[in-house]
Amino acid sequence: SRKEYPGFISSQNLGAFYLHNGMDLSNGKTRSAVRDSIRLFQEALRYKTDAAISFSALGCAYMELALYAHEEYCEAESAYRKALSIEETWKRWYNLGAIRNHFGDFKEAAACFHKALLLCADADEETRDAIYMSYAFCVAQYDKKTACQLFRKVLLDSFTENNAMDLFKLAYYCDAYNLALEILRILLKTTRWALNLPELIM
């Protein structure tokens, strides 16, 4: 309860403030704010060692720093795994999948994205589609046949102009030329895409 963990609450909230205000890592000042948020989340965890929200926030902060320092991904992964061991959410599974994808572990990344898909019923349609495409992309790295089936499902269920280019390139990458042509025919019906055809096939 709030009365039991006043130190936890203040550290967690102040850490969230620093993280929110340090998301633009284009300069040293904001990177410093993210590092301050990490210190505060770690402090919160000393008050409450099983706080999934603090582990998750810690993972988010490390991922922000990882844009500039590769080794921070390892810290982010550790934090997300601890958060997931306490409470599973689709965002945590998705972020862990993104980390494993970064390290080239596509099978585990796909497994993480799939778990995110199973838990993301409360997310909007665009977010669910993005998670699905991340899942399909990772599967494509080790099982092109299955990936083609996944891409065809997108084509049938949630094809939009926004995901069209990614879908076309992934189908082509998987040697699914008939599927790629099918997507291309749909795109060519739209003047905007027809004018940018060279960009599609580069």
Short description:
The protein is mainly α. It has helices spanning 6-21, 28-47, 52-66, 72-86, 90-102, 106-119, 125-140, 144-157, 161-173, 177-188, 191-195, 197-200. Helix 2 runs antiparallel to helix 3, helix 4 (72-86) packs antiparallel against helix 5 and helix 5 (90-102) runs antiparallel to helix 6.
Blueprint of the fold:
Elements: H1 6-21, H2 28-47, H3 52-66, H4 72-86, H5 90-102, H6 106-119, H7 125-140, H8 144-157, H9 161-173, H10 177-188, H11 191-195, H12 197-200
Describe the protein.
The protein is built from twelve helices and no strands. By secondary structure, the protein is mostly helical. The protein is elongated.
